[in-house]
Amino acid sequence: MKKRAVAVKYEKQEPAPKIIAKGNDHLADLIVKIARENDIFIEENDLLSKALMNFDVGDYIPEEMYEIVAKLLAFVYTLKPWNENEE
Question: Which of 24, 47, 67, 76 is in the most buried spot, having the most CB atoms within 10 Å?
Fold first, then answer.
């Protein structure tokens, strides 16, 4: 089975979360390694990653994926100890 990874980032000033990295096999391993080294939450969701692979780095996620990605980002936000200091 082919490994894949898609990194998504959301910034308040942006209209939607954006794909900031994606790759298969070795590149997927590297994306996951960098995420782990930087304490970035990793969600293993084969269906979502497969769907997001259809878009390019720099693309905003499509509107039909807002709900699932918003739920993941909301969950991740609750995990970050520094979130109460962000504005």
Answer: 76
Q: Return the exposure string of 33-51: e unless at least 16 CB atoms fall within 10 Å of the residue's CB, then b.
A: eeeeeeeeeeeeeeebbeb
Phi, psi (rounded to 5 degrees) for 59: -75, 145
For residue 39, give both structure tokens.
């304490």
The C-alpha atoms of residue 39 and residue 71 are separated, in whole angstroms, by 19
Better-scored residue on pLDDT, 75 or 48 = 48
Enter the pTM of the model: 0.78
Least Cα distance to 53 among 23, 16, 29, 9 occurs for 23
Give me the CATH code for the 4-85 domain, please.
3.40.1690.10
Q: Are 19 and 6 in contact, with CB atoms under 8 Å apart?
A: yes
pLDDT in tens, 44-62: 888 889 999 999 999 999 8
